[in-house]
Amino acid sequence: MDGLAGWLQALLWGLLAGGALLLGALIGVRWQVPQRLVAAVMAFGSGVLISALSFEMMDEAIETGGIASTAAGFLVGAAVYTAANWLLARKGARHRKRSAPHLAAEHKDASGAALAIGALLDGIPESIVIGLSLLGGEGVSVAVVVAVFLSNLPEGLSSAVGMKHTGRSPAHIYGIWAGIAVASGVAALLGYTVFHRFPPELLAAITAVAAGGVLAMVVDTMIPEAFEETHDFAGLIVAGGFLAAFALSKMAG
User: Fold this and answer.
1) How many CB atoms neighbour CB 152 within 10 A?
2) pLDDT, average across residues 98-124
3) Are 55 and 249 in contact (CB under 8 A)?
4) Closest CA to 80 of 203, 210, 202
5) How far apart are CA 240 and CA 221, in angstroms?
6) What is the arithmetic mean of pLDDT over 21-47?
7) Which of 104, 160, 237, 247, CA to CA, is 20 to 30 A from 3?
8) d(CA 235, CA 242)
9) Could you give the CA distance from residue 96 to residue 221 in angstroms, rounded to a whole number?
10) For the ranges 68-77, 101-110, 112-121, 236-245, which has the lowest average pLDDT?
């Protein structure tokens, strides 16, 4: 993709990473995936994201704008995500990533809008970071793209399984995740174009906001699903995902 314009690269990388949501949904709808496998993949994806936000997002933010703007942005991102997630929980979208029938059933009466907004809330910060990673002129951060892809796959899978348990049609499920995948591409595009001429301190804060939102999302929505079935093995699987992403980051660097 080196010969493509930066904005087009951002869009295509965002679509690639977001496409994992639709791929996961296709797998979850078409095949009977064991809940323990879903939870294990979710645990691995959690570790991957924690590594990416630690060694890619936060490192980049500090190098770009310093500790003050990075710390402020990180806390703001976590707080904003937590507040938005709390509001969505009141609308019935608390367990939008859960595949266990007894938990997925709790959002049976949730509106499609609440579920879609929840999915956007979970995925947009990650996609914006993909666009931001292109601003240095050295190409996209492969580690971030892989991390987002590997975390989106189990998210789409788990959510689709949960929606299927509540009786939602395949067309409804595919429609939601296809829309979120496209939104992920647009978010990456905006991350590149909107913030292209911003000062370093503001870029650092924006990257850190995304990182804080991602960490809050992992703890609030992904790790509970991971622990639901894997229990004592959740920590080990998360550590495996963390190590895999860490190694990729160092090799890519």
Assistant:
1) 29
2) 58
3) yes
4) 210
5) 19
6) 86
7) 247
8) 10
9) 8
10) 101-110
Q: Does the pLDDT at position 100 exceed 60? A: no
pLDDT at 120: 73
**What is the number of helices (H) and of strands (E) in the chain?**
11, 0
CB atoms within 10 A of CB 36: 13
Mind giving me the DSSP string for 64-88?
Answer: HH-HHHHHHHHHHHHHHHHHHHHHH
At 252 the pLDDT is: 66
User: Is 70 exceeded by the pLDDT of residue 246?
Assistant: yes
Nearest to 211 by CA among 17, 20, 67, 81: 81
Please enumerate in sequence order all residues whose Cβ is within 8 A of that of 37, keeping only pairs 6 or more positions apart, or say none.
none
pLDDT digits (tens, 9 = 90+) for 187-215: 899 888 887 777 888 888 888 888 898 89
Q: Retrieve residue 57's tokens.
A: 């997002």
Closest CA to 24 of 14, 37, 8, 10: 37
- What is the CA angle 150-158-208, rounded to 5? 45
Q: Tens of pLDDT along 129-160?
A: 888 878 766 677 787 888 788 778 877 887 77
For residue 98, report the phi and psi dihedrals to the nearest 5 degrees: -90, 140
Percentages (nearest 5) of helix, strand, coil residues in the chain: 85, 0, 15
Identity of the residue numbered 165: H
